[in-house]
Amino acid sequence: MGERETVERTAAAPATARSLAADLTTLGLPRGGVVLVHSSLRAIGWVVGGAEAVVEALLDAVGPDGTLVVPSFSTARTEPSRWQHPPVPESWWPVIRAETPAFDPRVSSTRQMGAIVDCVLRWPGTVRGPHPHVSLAANGPLASEVVAPHPLDAGLGDASPMGRLYDLDAHVLLLGVGHGNNSSLHLAEARANYPAKTYYDEGAAVLIDGERRWVTFRDFDTDDEDFPDVGAAFEAGGDVARVGRVGSGEARLMRQRALVDFAVTEIERRRSPR
Ligand SMILES: CC(C)(COP(=O)(O)OP(=O)(O)OC[C@H]1O[C@@H](n2cnc3c(N)ncnc32)[C@H](O)[C@@H]1OP(=O)(O)O)[C@@H](O)C(=O)NCCC(=O)NCCS
Fold this sequence. Notes:
- This protein has helices spanning about 5-10, 15-25, 50-60, 95-100, 115-120, 145, 160-165, 185-190, 225-235, 255-270; strands at about 35-40, 65-70, 125-130, 135-140, 170-175, 200-210, 210-220, 240-245, 250-255.
- By secondary structure, the chain is α+β, with helices and mostly antiparallel strands.
- It has one domain.
- A seven-stranded mixed beta sheet has the order 3-4-2-1-5-9-8. It has a two-stranded antiparallel ribbon with strand order 6-7.
- Helix 2 packs across helix 3.
- The chain is globular and about 55 Å long.
- Bound molecules: coenzyme A (COA).
- Coenzyme A (COA) binds near residues 2, 38, 112 and 183.
């Protein structure tokens, strides 16, 4: 599957920055609001100008007073003994810990975030947060306030940008992806109490006083396996998510606070023995 397949399944005409901005506004994207976007470019169908046009459309739809936020996670830089996709030989772990370059928000690559995120990162005015694994990046008047501070052990919990998006009553837009990619559910997971919740030692290469260091910190073990079901249950609960077409793809728009409040209880229910 590639660009050829995307052309073949695109509706009569390709989407443009202008048509996408109109689709986003029709979906209900709030002008002047704060919107966290998870995306797949391919799922939108063929777009004239690709990722660049999608970012233009998103910024156009939120307007100059709005703030566009994206996950800019760099999860290839985590503690190597925990790697699964793929695992690496144990004999490599020390050299990975010793030699991984310190996270630098200006240059460190994202992993599995997509072409739209990488384009937002290159966009003038975008600010990326300092977390070596789960930074957010944002463009707009509240960008700096959203992405930092981000303590190492806050992950996607209350003291992280996710918690600030909750306080700001932000929207979440799933653009061609499902609730499995809805990172705000990790905030709910962080708040929830369930018997199988475990904590582990995470590690990261960071710059401290100009010096590269491998540091360790505690975080809880996240698990997104039930996120599609939690998201479906949320949507089944009433008029809480707008679902519509953006280009040739499906998009879902919701308020993060309503989602997280629902998901805390739902996760506790699903992850507790019956
Ligand atoms: C992993 C993920 C990004 C892959 O999505 P994707 O659409 O396949 O990849 P991208 O968004 O990078 O877009 C690139 C694809 O767009 C397609 N494309 C290229 N030009 C295009 C155009 N002009 N118009 C539309 N699509 C185009 C191509 O198929 C290209 O893939 P290829 O280079 O392998 O052929 C997506 O599935 C995902 O998980 N997104 C959410 C990420 C996230 O927010 N995660 C956080 C929580 S875990």
